[in-house]
């Protein structure tokens, strides 16, 4: 892959990368379409498919994360993807005879709260694997989804801080018709859990309505407490966190106004779902 990336770069071919963990859905494919528009018909779109072990915690769903490379390949082909890069763990994280993989990339500010607090080693895994993918593919563009809002902000910061020679584009969240954000993990939502999973979207809508109706800034603490009660009325739902923060700096705010960003993580049964929106 790196040899190919270098050859493209030398030949002046524009390259766009879409990093994913596979089990692709329409949200991923919207990123592929965005990458195609960025590089043009003569450019190359690379989709990486890799369930990265270092971004999962010990009690998370790494081993049961859904995988279906054949189906993913079919979807990529139909979307006009040029190359699927699907490395294995031994290639990405070499081991053996005192030569285990031992270098990590750590962003130290934006990754502290929210996902970083709930999943302490998560972003270290993300930044490390994304840095590796950038060095391997050497794209001019990389496209990420706003579904993982904090992740996109951290990747942008890493690119700036470490002078990666590429541009990051963040594409909007694709949702099911009823509002549920598309996610590979939605596969876990069997039976009535699928209906209960709508509480994330409903909480975002409820908060947005409150902010738009209000004539003055709303205290974040009170809004968070109301949203927790609202979410946990769904019997299988347990709030992990809800946060209101500045869309650029990710700094939590105490007063919520139009334009404030909201993000939340909710366990629906055993499945942890995340979502976010601008108020
Ligand atoms: P994942 O395979 O979950 O790691 O996601 C790969 C990329 O797709 C990330 O940049 C995600 O933010 C993005 N993505 C996932 N779900 C959606 C969605 N519903 N809409 C837009 N982008 C998404």
Would you write up a description of this structure?
With 279 residues, the chain is α/β, with parallel strands linked by helices. The protein contains ten helices and ten strands. A five-stranded parallel beta sheet has the order 3-2-1-4-5, sandwiched between helices. Strands 7-9-10 form a three-stranded antiparallel beta sheet, with helices on one face. Strands 6-8 form a two-stranded antiparallel sheet. Helix 6 (122-137) crosses helix 7 and helix 9 runs antiparallel to helix 10. The chain is globular and about 55 Å long. The structure holds adenosine monophosphate. Adenosine monophosphate binds next to helix 2 and strand 4. The site of adenosine monophosphate has 17 residues, from helix 2 and strand 4.
Beta content: 15-25%
Distance between the termini: 41 Å
Helix fraction bin = 25-40%
Ligand types: adenosine monophosphate
Strand tally is 10
Oligomer: single chain
How much is the radius of gyration in Å? 19 Å
Instruction: Give average pLDDT, whole number.
Output: 97
How does the overall form come out from the CA principal axes?
globular
Secondary-structure element series = HEHEHEHHHEHEHHEHEEEE
Low-confidence residue ranges: none
**Largest pleated sheet:** 5 strands, parallel
Determine the number of helices (DSSP H or I, runs of at least 4 residues).
10
**Structure classification:** alpha/beta
**Major sheet: order of its strands?**
3-2-1-4-5
